[in-house]
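Bumping my old thread because nobody answered last time. Still need a sequence for this structure:
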């Protein structure tokens, strides 16, 4: 089976057109016309993940975060990042990334996060692409908790839900009872005004910048930063999706879930 057949099926679920302008999604390294038998699903493509793919004899890596975010100016193999690319090429491993298109997809990343948090009456947070049928896709979700809860208790609940060692939150009123919550996986702090516009009392997103935190406080918005790594929810979700496809079953394609922890942060 050709990798391209698998990718064409995947892009029905997370169409490339949903991606943000300039987002380097799609083929990262390799050849879509190659044959394959084993897929490694991962959040990030790091040297340890590539070693895992080699050890587990995977021909294809499907990642959420693109392996090549920035242009490569020198192929210096003394650089660990460049060496990683060399290992992928040496072992004929193709890498494909679905980033903001997976974030915006219906039943994609942000729906998975909203469901994990327990939101109901979920709606789209941001407007993105509108198809020929008038259906608009976009990143982020906003919805209601089943019961009112304080900001601090919600933060504690998220620690347990996502099995986190720690998280950050900003709030002028951590004991305030809230029910309306917005979530945007990854680095979404700059969209806090859209969270406010949609009536959110708390905005859950990663990588909140210092000055953005001040702006949120000034606007009266509480925010919880569980980190970027909670997006690893995509690994079991995508693996389950792929295993449900007839073309995967008919061609006996093996779907492997990465076991590598790619979170760069350690809490002490």
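Sorry it took so long. Here it is:
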């Amino acid at each position: 089976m050709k990798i391209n057949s698998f990718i064409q099926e995947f892009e029905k679920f997370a169409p490339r057109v949903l991606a943000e302008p300039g987002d380097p999604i799609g083929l990262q390294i390799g050849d879509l016309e190659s044959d394959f038998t084993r897929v490694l699903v991962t959040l990030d493509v790091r040297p340890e993940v590539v070693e895992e793919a080699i050890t587990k004899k995977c021909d294809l890596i499907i990642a959420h975060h693109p392996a090549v975010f920035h242009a490569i100016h020198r192929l210096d193999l003394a650089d660990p990042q460049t060496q990683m690319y060399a290992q992928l090429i040496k072992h004929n491993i193709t890498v494909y990334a679905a980033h903001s298109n997976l974030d915006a997809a219906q039943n994609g990343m942000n729906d998975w996060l909203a469901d994990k948090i327990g939101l109901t009456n979920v709606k789209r947070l941001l407007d993105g692409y509108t198809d020929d049928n008038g259906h608009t896709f976009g990143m982020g979700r906003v919805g209601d908790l089943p019961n009112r809860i304080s900001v601090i208790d919600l933060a504690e609940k998220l620690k347990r839900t996502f099995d986190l060692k720690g998280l950050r939150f900003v709030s002028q009123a951590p004991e305030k009872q809230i029910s309306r919550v917005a979530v945007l996986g990854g680095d979404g702090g700059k969209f806090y005004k859209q969270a406010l516009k949609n009536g959110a009392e708390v905005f859950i997103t990663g990588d909140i910048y210092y000055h953005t935190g001040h702006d949120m406080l000034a606007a009266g918005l509480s925010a919880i930063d569980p980190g970027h790594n909670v997006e690893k929810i995509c690994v079991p979700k995508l693996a389950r999706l792929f295993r449900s496809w007839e073309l995967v079953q008919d061609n006996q394609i093996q779907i492997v879930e990465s076991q590598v922890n790619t979170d760069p942060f350690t809490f002490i």
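Residues 3-13 form the longest helix (11 residues). Let me know if any region looks off to you.
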